[in-house]
Amino acid sequence: MTETEVLVCAECGIAHPAEEIELTFHLPDAIAAMTAEARAARCRETEDQCAIWGAGGAGHRFFLRALLPLAVESREEPYCLGVWLEVSDAVFYRIDALRDDPGQSDEPPLPATLANNVPFHRQSIGMPGSLQLHGPASRPSFDLDESSHDLYQEQQSGISPHRAWEYTRLVA
Q1: Residue 35's domain spans which residues?
Q2: Deepest in the core among 61, 68, 139, 146, taking most CB within 10 A?
Q3: Model confidence at 18: pLDDT above 90
Q4: CA atoms of 114 and 111, how far apart (whole Å)
């Protein structure tokens, strides 16, 4: 990837510098797999939060957007995968209560699990980790719990510029 290379965004149709584009999931995989009718009947969605209402009022599921940072060799800023996390109802309502709180970054890390299958890796849905709030104007970050999974290894060791490019190519 060269610094002058541009890609046309599949979402907005605008040309962006390639190094500014990061892979983002638009929905949790569980919701993306639903039919339009099921989504309309059972889901509540905003840009940063989603919920699936269980049949008969049981089994609600709650999801939040977050960034999974990956250090990149020879780059100051990490490459962030825009992922969805599944959280408990208690965590969901706690984060909602802190939505406009400028001190939310003082909140200790909260448990969550990855709700997307990340390309180039074996099954990643359900990988546990910690969600950290940073402030009302920014998305939380997600750090995977220690494991032998290759995505955890990428988060710990970093990725090459080529791997960042592989993720970016999925967007264009």
Answers
A1: 6-169
A2: 68
A3: no
A4: 10
Q: Are residues 73 and 159 in contact, defined by beta-carbon separation less than 8 angstroms?
A: yes
- In the chain, count of helices (H) and strands (E)? 5, 9
Residues contacting residue 90 through CB under 8 Å, at least 6 positions apart: none
How many whole angstroms separate alpha carbon 161 and alpha carbon 24?
A: 17
Separation between Cα atoms, residue 17 and residue 171, nearest integer Å? 13
- pLDDT of 4 > 60? The answer is no
* Residue 50 within any structural domain of the chain: yes
Q: Determine the Cα–Cα distance for residues 107 and 134; give it in Å rounded to an integer.
A: 9
Q: Is residue 152 part of a domain?
A: yes
Q: Under a CB-based contact definition with an 8 Å cutoff, are residues 79 and 69 in contact?
A: yes
Residue with tokens 């541009």: 6
With left for phi above 0 and alpha for psi between -120 and 50, is residue 111 left, alpha or beta? beta
What global pTM score does this model have? Answer: 0.87
What is the predicted pLDDT for the residue at 56? 62
The reply to whether 65 falls in a domain is yes
- Domain assignment present for residue 1? The answer is no
Is it the case that residue 2 has pLDDT exceeding 50?
A: no
